[in-house]
């Protein structure tokens, strides 16, 4: 009896889990049939969503690659427009502040770094 009650409750739970059967009176065969249909439908839907996710990941990777290429091109253009300092790792921006190749291009003034000669700044300003 306890086992039969458990099976009955399980079928009711399964019936309530299938949207097309919620609150409906259905035989066990109908419950199993509709549950099977719903599982197949959800598998197809999940597969479609997974394909969408994969497509979006590919698009995202391509866009990130384009961003890196554009940032590299921009950085290259900026470095060509500026003059290297004595150690080659710092460059001056048009404002005259030092830009490190490692700090993302933020302006920084350091007393320990030698200032660029004035004639270079003037040449840079005249060229632009």
Automatic annotation (TrEMBL):
Entries under InterPro entries matching the protein: bHLH_dom (IPR011598), HLH_DNA-bd_sf (IPR036638), Tscrpt_reg_Myc (IPR002418)
Point to the regions of Polar residues compositional bias: 75-92
Record's SUPFAM superfamilies? HLH, helix-loop-helix DNA-binding domain (SSF47459)
- Family affiliation: Belongs to the MAX family.
Question: Which UniProt keyword terms apply here?
Answer: Activator, DNA-binding, Nucleus, Phosphoprotein, Repressor, Transcription, Transcription regulation
Region ranges (Disordered): 1-27, 73-128
Q: Name one GO biological process term.
A: positive regulation of transcription by RNA polymerase II
Per the record, where are the segments of Basic and acidic residues compositional bias? 1-15
Q: Name one Pfam family in it.
A: HLH
Q: Which organism is it from?
A: Lophotis ruficrista
Which residue ranges does the record assign to the BHLH domain? Answer: 1-42
Q: Which GO terms describe its molecular function?
A: DNA binding; DNA-binding transcription factor activity; protein dimerization activity
Name this polypeptide is given: Protein max
* One GO cellular component term: RNA polymerase II transcription regulator complex
